[in-house]
Design brief:
This protein has 422 residues and is of the alpha/beta class. The chain is built from 17 helices and 13 strands. The protein binds pyridoxal-5'-phosphate.
Length: 422
């Protein structure tokens, strides 16, 4: 109640002041996070060690996965997963055209071909388009939980597990043979804590990769986590060991184990990557993840709902999905769409918001509109829903520190900008 009264008083002030200054996505740093980092700095051990181990255990628990492997970004985590699957030249991986470039770049780096398909109205990859795009060369699908909203995993799983797809699947090695179908990888860069069919969304795919980049729901400045609960004949313990080894130069002992007395001797057994997460970074994520379910995620939901209840009343606005029987978002983004506007009008609204101190964003510039992918022959005309969603999309700031007064300010400024532009 008090909060509401204060808010009203403050609102009058807001109208008088020239403008607020609202960044798009500052990291959440409080005293507990500072203390966890300080403890690490003072412990004498700052690279991969006990903090990483604790973050792996806590994140596996949070998403109900058997194993979690920390690495230094989503991108390097995805590269490691493709390496484990032995995906390379001649192989195809299906992805949505509407995503961040990293989803496609890791496939190119592996020497394979990203096959882009269009999305559904809710921004997630269209299962029917996946079905049409599958060929005998399809080794994996990377589905992206855009904004924290889980993909149609049940439909995707049904397609890749169908006898038609299984019988056409050409395994290139033992691991692919054991799957016996294309592997479903979730680009969960946005969706830590999202729920799909009453379970953590991470359980709906074969392998889930989170990003802990500075703007994501939980951060380690830069970082990523690979989660999996593979079924027999896979041994999750063995896969975990492989991933740890190959995230550190294929070295049989990490620096922490080597540092223990008498443990100096090691061997190099494979051509591993060097993508391990340092403890000093893990400390940030560890302190954050402890307050994620109880504080950080609910606070994001508060901001989301504030926007949703304002824009639901405006006939010109389309609010993103957040909570249905099927799933619950992790509220990473608030991708507001404005009906019947062109790209240039959307850009004008973004500029007007910047003029009044509100930093907004667009998620994402479709891959076929970026130079690299254009040069590779992808054409935006082939992805009509991707373009339609992109041209009218504005991502509003959403993070725990954003208070209700700021939300109200942002809402009013969007409405004002809309009225001026349209
Ligand atoms: C942020 C992001 C990534 C990349 O994450 P990094 O940790 O920066 O490598 C991948 N996919 C999506 C959808 C993202 O938003």
């Amino acid at each position: 109640m008090n909060k509401l009264i204060n808010l009203e008083l403050f609102d009058t002030k807001v109208l008088e002041s020239p403008h607020m200054n609202i960044p798009f996505s500052p990291p959440f740093i409080d005293e507990d996070i500072e203390n966890e980092v300080l403890e690490c700095l003072r412990s004498g051990w700052i690279t991969t060690g006990p903090k990483v181990r604790d973050l792996e255990l806590l994140s596996a628990e949070l998403v109900g996965a058997e194993k979690a492997v920390c690495v230094n970004s989503w991108t390097s985590g995805a590269a490691l997963v493709l390496k484990w699957l032995g995906i390379g030249p001649g192989d195809e991986v299906i992805i949505p055209a509407y995503t961040y470039s990293a989803t496609a770049l890791v496939i190119l780096h592996a020497g394979a071909k990203p096959v882009m398909v269009d999305i559904l109205e809710d921004f997630t990859i269209d299962p029917e388009q996946i079905k049409k795009a599958i060929t005998p060369a399809t080794k994996a699908i990377i589905a992206v939980d855009i904004a924290g909203w889980p993909c149609e995993y049940e439909a995707i799983n049904a397609i890749i597990s169908s006898s038609e797809v299984r019988s056409g699947f050409l395994a290139g090695n033992d691991i692919q043979h054991q799957f016996g179908r294309p592997v479903l990888i979730s680009d969960a860069a946005h969706s830590m804590g999202a729920i799909y069919k009453n379970k953590p969304a991470a359980l709906a795919s074969d392998i889930t990769i989170f990003s802990l980049h500075a703007v994501k729901n939980v951060t380690t400045a830069e970082g990523g986590i690979i989660c999996f609960s593979l079924l027999a004949p896979f041994s999750n313990t063995e896969v975990y060991k492989w991933m740890k080894l190959n995230s550190l130069n294929g070295q049989t002992k990490d620096a922490f184990t080597k540092s223990q007395s008498g443990g100096w001797r090691y061997d190099i057994v494979s051509m591993g990557l060097k993508i391990n997460m340092p403890d000093v970074c893990a400390a940030i994520g560890l302190a954050q993840i402890k307050k994620y379910p109880g504080l950080l995620l609910p606070e994001r939901e508060r901001v989301f709902k504030h926007y949703a209840s304002f824009f639901a009343e405006k006939e010109w606005a389309i609010i993103p999905p957040s909570d249905q029987k099927r799933c619950k978002s992790s509220f990473h983004l608030f991708p507001l769409r404005i009906k019947n506007i062109f790209e240039s009008q959307r850009d004008e609204i973004i500029q007007k918001m910047a003029d009044v101190g509100v930093s907004t964003n667009v998620h994402f510039i479709p891959l076929p509109m970026l130079s690299l992918f254009k040069e590779l022959g992808y054409k935006i005309e082939d992805y009509p829903i991707t373009y339609k969603n992109y041209e009218c999309e504005i991502s509003l700031p959403i993070y725990p520190q954003l208070d209700n007064t700021q939300c109200t300010y942002i809402e009013n400024q969007i409405e004002k900008a809309y009225n001026e532009v349209v």
